[in-house]
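Dear colleagues,

As part of the handover before I leave the project, I'm documenting each prediction I ran so the next person doesn't have to rerun anything. This entry is a single chain, and its sequence is reproduced below.
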Amino acid sequence: MKPIRGAADLLAARAQREGRPVTVTFQVTDRCNYECVHCYQEHRDTTAAKRDELSTAEIVRILDELAEAGVLFLTIMGGEVFVRRDADEILAAAHERGFALKLLSTGHHINDQRADLLATLRPLQVEMSLYSARHQAHELVTRSPGSWQRTIAAARRLIARKVPVVLKAPVMEANLDDLEDMARLARDLGAEYQFDPKITAMETGEKAPMALRMKADSLARFYQGPMSGYLAATYAAGTPAALSVAGGDDVRPLHHTPCRAGQQSLSITPYGEVWPCNALPMPCGNLREQSFASIWNGSNELAEIRDLRWAKLAECNVCELRSYCQRCHGMALVEQGTVRGPSLEACRHAVAVRDQLRDRGLVPATDVAMPPTWDRVDLDGQHSLGRVDGKRRPLGLRILS
């Protein structure tokens, strides 16, 4: 029996055959009016960032190049997109060029007038982060009073205009017990919701946000609770992952890539740099100096990323938990310093997923292998944060504890 392939897999395969990009994430600014404690982005000095950002004309030219290259899906994000005075013009230009548009925003600046505009642009969805169903807890994360009310109000405005809204929650130790209430709030609003359990280091390599990660027992509870339905469906008998763990076709064979970054997708920074992914800060060219096509077709850095296969990743290439692993090139780079090795956080999650499935009888009880990295994995996700006097770094780093 061959692994089941979804529409995204088929689209990725076709894009790879034709040598065309499918998805681009365009970060038009890294300025933001919030100061979220977990944020992975580097926020430059506001004056300098504004001065150096791509101009409206440059962005429109790049949008033309993306359309010419055949890009289908375009995500516009920041920072906060709407701190740019020309944000509405940028979104309208993207719509005019026929992209399937997604928007990431805090919702802070989405008033009735802007909600009307977004409704005319018919985005696939507008994604906003929600950190808690309670405004006090949400605002401990954003460090911005009134931000919870603004996000909820923006969601209501968009949903009333039939704009699809996704409320996204990065899951931290501090908000794990609030997920059920967040899901209920999203359903009551008429929004979709997503939970992301991986808090990453900053793109600069600064690791302070890692202190917010779920501890070992909390991670187990997360996969036992909010993610249990997803895991059961993914690893039910007959699905690709189940085939692998049961000894059938390997859905993550060594000649496959763990990630589509650079394969069918790219990211563009506010300053014109092209990265394989917005979470993978590896400059592959600059659109102020080169065309999009020349970077897509000729970048040596992109060629390196495209060449990455499980077989070429140290330790991953002998790991028995690949079927459970959601490895990220970006996390490996910013946390371990190389894209050619493991992400220790991915290892931690792979074990948690496998253990949960094994406890539920969805994978064999004999599946007890551990990653070759396990002696370096901190069970609470701190990994290389370091220790002081035999203990983890001071509680001052645990910003929300």
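DSSP finds 15 helices and ten strands in the chain. The CA atoms of residues 10 and 17 lie 11 Å apart.

All the best with the project,
I.
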